[in-house]
Design goal:
The protein is α/β, with parallel strands linked by helices. The protein has 15 helices and twelve strands. It has a seven-stranded mixed beta sheet, sandwiched between helices. The protein has a three-stranded antiparallel beta sheet with strand order 9-10-12. Strand 3, helix 5 and strand 4 form a beta-alpha-beta unit. The longest helix has 20 residues.
Length: 408
């Protein structure tokens, strides 16, 4: 077990499950037709895509014709935001988002801002929650879109989507949510939760990379952002990634069949690791506790040391984690999510995201915790100053810390 890689970076991506690979294989080699072709191979591919669309849409409470396949959740976010903006009237040039969104939401919105749209960037509380009253006050007659992430990619905060959706629906404003991290981890019914647009992908739930989807509620109109042939209801041109779509549906079906059990298991793994790591002095948990947090996520700040150094030392010891958001971990700019919840820049740089899948075990957390303690001890021994006590410390287990060191 000690020589096995402990993979705690599942918010970044997950390994494919064997049944998913099995479902995909025929569409690489035998049923390889283009769904747009009228011969038998094409018709078989089209039928398989339609079945996959029905499967995934059914899992989120949508109709098949409301689901557009894309190349990723990033593309789905772009289509939702830029497509809604392009379709908005000249009198509606205002949109609202939060300060803790993924770059796949932030950057399309920044592009619109440069193009003359007005943007309200909502603050969040220290646990990463959007205040519904703040949203209500921010909406004006010019607002056409609100985009708020469902489950945060860094600190795991799960927003009350239905409450936010109700505010938008009553105001006649489109509501979009990036559900890439939450899909199959926590319940989401786009109809009951009053969502107009929602973005998903496959590779966060043991499906393939390179495939995502956008839910577009019936009656909502977007303008396509790419030109080409009329695939995907004339909204997303290009030959469909048939093996990817099949794998997406297979992975989603498997995930939803055991959603409650797997979420409970991942929550237990998450909480077990959190409790151990917070007993290290000068640590803090970023984001909320309990069921208001994604079961896959634990984000911990280790004060007085660099997260990148922790990541590299853990990697050398066979533990894979992420420093901040994996999509921006090569950037020295502190995480927008962590600074938005009140962390100082130096503390944001000392944060590590541990993220889990249903394949992880309690035993792995015990091994990983020992290795984290070893790394923290090593790196802090190299720093100029680490106080014995600190007023902001959540981890206060000096005795536990010393005991664990002795066990290494």
């Amino acid at each position: 077990m000690e020589d096995r890689l402990i993979y705690f970076d599942n918010n970044d991506t997950t390994p494919l499950l064997d049944p998913v690979v099995t479902a995909m294989l025929p569409f690489f080699t035998k049923a390889f037709g283009n769904p747009a072709s009228l011969h038998q191979l094409g018709l078989e591919a089209e039928e398989a895509v339609n079945e996959a669309r029905a499967t995934i849409s059914g899992l989120i409470g949508a109709k098949p014709e409301e689901l557009i396949f894309t190349g990723s959740a990033t593309e789905a976010n772009n289509l939702a935001i830029l497509g809604a903006a392009a379709n908005a009237s000249s009198k509606r040039r205002h949109l609202i988002t939060s300060k803790i969104e993924h770059n796949a939401v932030i950057n399309p919105i920044k592009r619109l801002e440069k193009d003359g749209f007005r943007v309200t960037w909502l603050d969040v509380d220290p646990e990463g929650f959007v205040n519904s009253e703040d949203l209500k006050k921010a909406i004006t007659p010019e607002t056409f879109l609100v985009s708020i992430v469902h489950g945060n990619h860094e600190i795991g905060t799960v927003q009350d989507i239905k409450a936010l959706g109700m505010i938008c629906r009553e105001a006649g404003v489109l509501f979009h949510t990036d559900a890439a991290q939450s899909f199959s981890k926590v319940p989401l019914n786009v109809t009951n939760d009053l969502v107009d647009l929602a973005s998903f992908n496959a590779h966060k739930l043991h499906g393939p990379k390179g495939i995502g989807a956008l839910y577009v509620r019936g009656g909502v109109h977007l303008k396509k952002i790419m030109e080409g042939a009329p695939q995907e209801f004339n909204m997303r041109p290009g030959t469909e990634n048939v093996p990817g779509i099949i794998g997406f549906a297979a992975a989603a079906k498997l995930a939803f069949e055991t959603l409650s059990r797997d979420s409970a298991h991942m929550s237990a793994v998450r909480d077990h690791l959190i409790e151990q790591l917070l007993q290290i002095p000068h640590t803090r948990l970023n984001g909320p506790r309990g069921n208001r947090r994604l079961p896959t996520n634990a984000d911990i700040t280790f004060k007085y040391i660099e997260g990148e150094a922790i990541l590299m030392h853990l990697s050398m010891r066979g533990v894979a984690v992420s420093s901040g958001s994996a999509c921006s971990s090569k950037n020295l700019t502190p995480s927008n999510v962590l600074t938005s919840i009140g962390l100082k820049h130096e503390d944001a740089h000392g944060s590590i995201r541990f993220s889990f899948s249903k394949l992880n075990t309690i035993e792995e957390t015990d091994i990983a915790a020992k290795k984290v303690i070893e790394v923290v001890e090593l790196l802090r021994s190299m720093t100029a100053f680490v106080p014995e006590k600190h007023s902001e410390t959540e981890g206060s287990g000096e005795v536990f810390y010393k005991k664990k060191k002795e066990e290494l």
